[in-house]
Amino acid sequence: MKENERDAVLLRQHRSMEERVQAGESCMVKLALDMPAVVDEMDDAVSRAWAAMPERLYLLDREGRVAYKGGMGPMFFRPKEWEAAIERLLGDA
């Protein structure tokens, strides 16, 4: 992707969990993300289960049910919509 080249976010395919974690940490720093992040196992089970390719934003309620599922990212991320869903969920708590 041209954006990745422009932002110098170029990573080779991970060969180990250690490499995958390092790549995630590198992206968090490079993109100045200030939010919790998790890294899927090498089998990509979570990614497949949640249709996470391309990226998606999910919000889970306290019972683990999906309270919000965003569009395919990053083009269809709707941060204000996601924020409103968070506020609704916190208001229900």
Produce the secondary structure layout.
Blueprint: H1 2-6, H2 17-30, H3 45-49, E1 58-60, E2 66-69, H4 79-92
Antiparallel strand pairs: 1-2
Task: Give your account of this protein's structure.
- There is one protein chain.
- The chain has 93 residues and is mainly alpha-helical.
- The chain contains 4 helices and 2 strands, in the order αααββα.
- A hairpin with a 5-residue loop joins strand 1 (58-60) and strand 2.
- The protein folds into 2 domains: 1-39, no CATH class; 42-93, no CATH class.
- It has helices spanning 2-6, 17-30, 45-49, 79-92; strands at residues 58-60, 66-69.
- The protein has a two-stranded antiparallel ribbon with strand order 1-2.
DSSP helical segment count: 4
How many strand elements? 2
Strand order of the largest sheet: 1-2
Taking all residues together, what is the mean pLDDT? Answer: 85
Stretches with pLDDT under 50, minimum 5 residues: none
Main sheet overview: 2 strands, antiparallel
Structurally, the number of domains stands at 2
What's the gyration radius in Å? 15 Å
Terminal CA distance reads 41 Å
* Structural class by SSE content: mainly alpha
- The 3D shape can be described as globular
Order of helices and strands: HHHEEH
Any key phrases for this structure?
mainly alpha, 2 domains, two-stranded antiparallel ribbon, 4 helices
